[in-house]
């Protein structure tokens, strides 16, 4: 149900994000909930297999 409140912790557990992935996810998620956020300029990088796409999918 889209109207249910889902916490960032619920999402990080559902998507099995590791500590670094969860940190990036929380930064982006918190920013997206601001009333009038300034553009978020954030680098999400790393070698293949570090979970960059996983973070984006969780968002």
TrEMBL record:
Q: Which InterPro entries match?
A: P-loop_NTPase (IPR027417)
- Identify this protein by name: ATP-dependent DNA helicase
Species of the source: Thelephora terrestris
